[in-house]
Design a protein that fits this description.
The complex is a heterodimer. Chain A contains 13 helices and no strands. By secondary structure, chain A is mainly alpha-helical. The two termini of chain A are 32 Å apart. Chain A has helices at residues 2-33, 42-72, 85-99, 108-131, 136-157, 159-168, 178-197, 199-205, 209-214, 219-241, 247-258, 263-287, 296-316. Chain A is globular. By secondary structure, chain B is α/β, with parallel strands linked by helices. Chain B has a single domain, classed as Rossmann fold (3-Layer(aba) Sandwich), CATH 3.40.50.300. Chain B has eight helices and twelve strands. Chain B has helices spanning 45-51, 75-81, 97-103, 116-129, 144-158, 174-189, 202-208, 231-238, and strands at residues 7-16, 19-29, 34-38, 58-65, 68-69, 82-85, 162-166, 194-198, 211-216, 219-225, 242-247, 250-255. In chain B, helix 4 packs across helix 5. Chain B is globular. The mean pLDDT of chain B is 91. Classes of the chains: A mainly alpha, B alpha/beta.
């Protein structure tokens, strides 16, 4: 009986993995083969495959970062965008672009990851010392505005780059530098695996300091490691696709409702949903005002902001 | 005294920043007994429990668990010997009761997936606490009585020798309290556990515990066996006139209400 249950549990994991993979594949293929407004030439097909790779990398990374932030802070409202991490990462990328370093973009994820980690540390420090845990999101939002302003300020100094970087501030899946996509893909895959291997630690940490200690987890130390993983993932997502908000908020929540709160199932399920949301949003962003393309972050924000308000209301009533 | 002390506090002080909450405490805990830590608000009861998990930032002196100094043990090693139920826990995510109970096994085995033994222990723990029928419910949607039993089941699934409980009965109604007191006694008698619990409700404490640690302003005022507890000692601890009533061995503790 116990043996059977264990098998069921593992099966559930593989079912979710298969489901996640097929969800990504299905949405990708539909998006690929829908030559709605154009003839499907080889160049277009190649561009679309790149677009989808970018969407899948960014979607999976943001979703897993969201899972980690939410569980480490015991707060279902946490998200790499709201916590200011994405802007920190964008600051890194914008800095490189302005300085004219790394035209191939290979160093973008490193700079993005580094500044994303710094931002996480700063938000944590300010939030803890000044307001306590509950105001973390507010601190993050403030830091987010601050860093966005700095990025825009820096960008205005060098007008030529302005358009592409401003676009980058609302999400841009049109990346065509193969090397950059590849590097981000490898970084994301590595850190998602690291996060997955820490699933049970993450489960324990979500219950706060005292309970996680009695589960044998030294929460302060482990939280730092996990936040670093989440920051690097955010950095990778931003380097490849710009700032895309709310994917990290929505995906884990939907995955939790559909599957489980257990990080071992939540991580693969969120990945599938995160990638799905982005591929879908991108499709919408390119179709709604065709031939004009809307930044994909506009679509995710239109979906995500009401979602946040709804979730916040539920949290106030303790029903999340 | 017996030689097999399970926990020893020696000149132990603890505090937060400049504030010292526990002052120079020395005492020992013996196995297979239920200890009640009593004292007014802010006397250091919770700090005493949390000290065992090295959760208090400033400490001096020593604590030994089975002869081993806790500063030499990792949190993971301590968790294999000691379990702790905090007075208040946040449950921001809707894990199921079974998932939550199984999590206790993470303290013991670090595999990515639970082994058959882990699943069996968790199942036995749920049976022991009588929560098997709610095992697929979400922990966010059960009553506080059920929640308390779920946390205890997690602790039982860990199967540690020492169990620390911070105000285990405070959110429960009288029926659930009686049930919990019975379960705790069972843990000691059937499973041979050592329990250290803080209490606000003295009636529960006095009916359940074998030994009483009276804590006042961070210092140990007295350590008493059940038979040594008197009205005077309890009254002195709380600086209020308190009476212990006895109905065929079942005791009730009442405070004298001041008249003007």
């Amino acid at each position: 009986m116990a043996d059977y249950k264990e098998k069921m549990k593992k099966n559930r994991f593989f079912r979710i993995l298969v489901l996640a993979a097929s969800l990504i594949a299905a949405v990708s293929i539909i998006s690929l083969l829908l030559p709605l407004f154009s003839n499907l030439t080889e160049t277009i097909l190649k561009l679309r495959i790149m677009r989808i790779s970018v969407a899948v990398i960014a979607g999976c990374s943001l979703a897993v970062a969201g899972v980690i932030f939410q569980m480490v802070f015991s707060n279902p409202l946490a998200d790499p965008y709201l916590l200011g991490n994405s802007s920190g990462a964008a600051f890194g990328v914008a800095g490189l672009a302005i300085l004219g370093i790394s035209k191939s973009g290979v160093f973008h994820p490193l700079a993005a990851g580094f500044f994303s980690c710094l931002t996480a540390a700063a938000v944590l420090k300010i939030g803890r010392t000044r307001f306590g845990r509950n105001s973390l999101i507010l601190t993050g939002v403030a830091v987010n505005f601050f860093l966005s302003a700095i990025v825009i300020f820096v960008v205005t100094l060098k007008r030529k780059e302005a358009y592409s970087i401003l676009y980058f501030m609302m999400g841009d899946l049109g990346e065509t530098r193969t090397k950059l996509i590849l590097v981000c893909g490898i970084i994301s895959a590595t850190f998602i695996i690291l996060a997955f291997l820490k699933s049970r630690t993450l489960n324990a940490i979500s219950f706060g300091k005292s309970l996680s200690r009695q589960l044998g987890v030294q929460s302060e130390k482990e939280s730092e490691k996990l936040l670093m993983i989440a920051s690097v993932l955010t950095g990778s997502a931003v380097a490849v696709g710009g700032i895309i908000g709310f994917v990290g908020l929505m995906s884990p929540h939907i995955a939790r409702k559909l599957f489980s709160s257990d990080a071992r199932l939540l991580i693969p399920a969120s990945m599938g949903i995160g990638a799905g949301i982005l591929v879908f949003s991108d499709f919408a962003a390119r179709s709604i005002l065709y031939p004009v393309e809307i930044p994909v972050g506009v679509i995710t924000a239109i979906l995500g902001a009401p979602f946040f308000i709804w979730l916040y209301g539920k949290k106030q009533n303790n029903r999340v | 005294m017996e030689k097999n002390k399970i926990i020893e506090f020696k000149n132990f002080s603890a505090g937060y920043g400049k504030k010292r909450v526990l002052k120079n405490i020395t005492f020992a805990i013996l196995p297979r007994r239920i200890y009640a830590v009593l004292g007014p608000n802010a006397s250091g009861k919770t700090t005493l429990l949390k000290s065992l998990f090295r959760e208090i930032p400033e400490t001096s002196g020593e604590i030994k668990i089975r002869g081993k100094e806790i500063s030499d043990l990792s949190v993971g090693q301590i968790a294999k010997k000691v379990s702790f139920c905090p007075a208040q826990t946040n449950f921001p995510f809707d894990f199921t009761v079974a998932e939550f109970v199984q999590m206790g096994r993470f303290a013991v085995s670090k595999n990515l997936w639970e082994t058959n033994l882990d699943i069996k222990k968790a199942k036995n723990a749920m049976d022991a606490m009588g929560i098997s029928d709610i095992k697929s419910k979400k922990i966010t949607g059960i009553s506080s009585g059920e929640l308390q039993k779920t946390i205890l089941a997690q602790i039982i699934s860990k199967d540690t020798e020492i169990i620390l409980l911070d105000e285990p009965t405070s959110h429960l109604d009288i029926k659930n309290r009686a049930e919990l007191v019975g379960k705790l006694r069972d843990l000691k008698e059937t499973f041979g556990k050592t329990i250290i619990a803080t209490f606000h409700d003295l009636t529960e404490a006095i009916n359940l515990a074998d030994i009483f640690i009276l804590l006042k302003k961070g210092e140990i005022m007295d350590i008493l066996e059940k038979s040594q507890i008197t009205d005077e000692k309890i009254s002195a601890l709380y600086e209020t006139e308190i009476k212990i009533l006895d109905e065929n061995g079942l005791k009730a503790v009442m405070a004298q209400i001041e008249k003007d």
